[in-house]
Amino acid sequence: MCKKHDKMLELFCRTDQLCVCLMCTEHKTHDTVPLEEEYEERKAQLERKKSEVQKMIQERQEKVEEMKASVQLNKKDTDEELAKTAEVFTALVASIQRQQAELMEVIEERQRAAQKQAEGFIKELEEEITELQRTSSELERLSLTEDQLQLLQSFPSVSSSPRTKNWSGISVRTYLCVETVRTAVLQLEETTTKEMKTLLQHIEKTKEDLQKLPEDFRLRRIQQLYAVDVTLDPNTANLYLVLFEDGKQVRCGNTRQDLPDNPERFDHCICVLGREGFSSGRFYFEVQVKGDEWDVGVVRESINRKGDIYYCPSDGSWVIWLRDGNNYEALDEPRVPLSLSQKPEKVGVFVDYEEGLVSFYDVEAETLIYSFTGCSFTEQIYPFFSPSLYEAAPLIISPVKHTQ
Q: Are strands 32-34 and 346-352 parallel, antiparallel or unpaired?
């Protein structure tokens, strides 16, 4: 019933989305229809909406099943890759051990042969020594006799030289057969090279597969494998920078500190380096970047410490920055404006020294911000941090959380 006129609600005002009676004249200029008509229309809409929702549910259930199947397939592929890797390493180790055992057997056999030969020579020599000592004793006894007849009769038998061998050119071979050892080593080298080639091909394929992973999976893999502990180096900090005691936070102060202007300290650029440098391999660290201005990246050891710095790879810096709260740029050559869907609160920095790669990630969104590729690293690389001049918000080196 209409509360105002105490009449049956027979109409529906589409303009105000209200049920009204025939006496509600304020709705006469509005789009009104009989209640039954609106009921039928709304019921039809409900059926369409139910069908649409059911379809959305079905689509998402199918997507869930698809993802589960994808996870299972990925697990199967991962298990196969692990098995192949173990097989390659096992074959390589087994081959080396087999070649080592064969070479050791050759060496030991030649040692046994040399020992046997020496024992034979020693036995002959000892027998000759015994015979010579007997002859020496007989000669000594005969030389002392005064019996002329005995001396003349015995002389022929004792004066003849005993049967002995000429030992001047005889010796025991105390060295190994060089050719046999060389052959064994060459066989080992050939086998190892072949197995290493197979292993390297497998590693390259694994790296290619890693490049094909979605960025969120790739970032998680990087976090698991390459996270390093970075602390700030106070000896490099500009004199206006304030470093916290934990060595993980830095902000810009209002006054210049009275500290030595040592060679490694930045005297103009408001920045600081990480204490640890890297000259090979891969490493990853994360920085909390609250505020409207900041610079984060890596630089080479020989970056200019005195005077202005021009951010670019050719001058030894691989950096992204934020200006005026929403202007993100990669300081490449030329500079690249970055259009980000959301403001990152934590930036991850990944460096592959051998590949010449520096990548920046939005850690919370698990998305790639920008990558410097084809970088030429010829010296140590250091993490680089520069907080805003006008804000109290510090840059904070965060511990890396290994998400699954």
A: unpaired
Q: Which residue spans within 55-179 are E strands per DSSP?
A: none
Q: What is the pLDDT of residues 187-210, one digit of tens each?
A: 767 777 776 777 666 666 655 555
Contacts 24+ apart (CB under 8 A), 140-149: none
Rounded distance between C-alpha atoms, residue 173 and residue 120, angstroms: 13
The bridge status of strand 317-323 relative to strand 249-252 is unpaired
Distance CA(305)–CA(189), nearest Å, equals 48
The mean of the pLDDT values for the chain is 84
Query: Would you say 300 and 279 are in contact if contact means Cβ atoms under 8 Å apart?
Result: no
pLDDT at 303 over 80: yes
CA separation (Å) from 347 to 253, 310, 343, 369, 383? 23, 22, 10, 9, 13
Q: Is the dihedral of CA 400, 72, 206, 202 positive or negative?
A: positive
In this predicted structure, what is the pLDDT of residue 154? 74
The 3-state DSSP class for residue 193 equals: helix
Structure-block tokens of residue 375: 């970088």
**pLDDT tens digits, 214-243:** 666 788 888 888 999 999 999 999 999 999
pTM of the model: 0.52
| 251 neighbors 392 (Cβ within 8 angstroms) | yes
Q: What is the pLDDT of residues 276-302, one digit of tens each?
A: 999 999 999 999 998 889 999 999 999
Structure tokens at 170: 């005889």
What pLDDT is recorded for position 341? 86
CB atoms within 10 A of CB 86: 10
Cite the beta strand spans of 353-404 per DSSP E.
Answer: 357-362, 367-372, 381-387, 395-398
CA–CA separation, 217 and 78 (whole Å): 13
pLDDT of 182 reads 66
Instruction: Centre a 10 Å sphere on the Cβ of residue 385 and count the other Cβ atoms it contains.
Output: 27
Does position 98 have pLDDT exceeding 90, yes or no? no
CB atoms under 10 Å from CB of 285, counted, come to 23
Distance CA 214, CA 6 (A): 65
Cα–Cα distances in angstroms (integers) from residue 234 to residues 18, 184, 248, 264, 317, in the given order? 70, 56, 11, 10, 20
Residue 49 DSSP symbol:
H
The C-alpha angle 313, 351, 200, rounded to 5 degrees, equals 120
357: three-class secondary structure by DSSP: strand
Whole-angstrom Cα distance, residue 342 to residue 200? Answer: 40
Residue 96 φ then ψ, to 5°: -65, -45
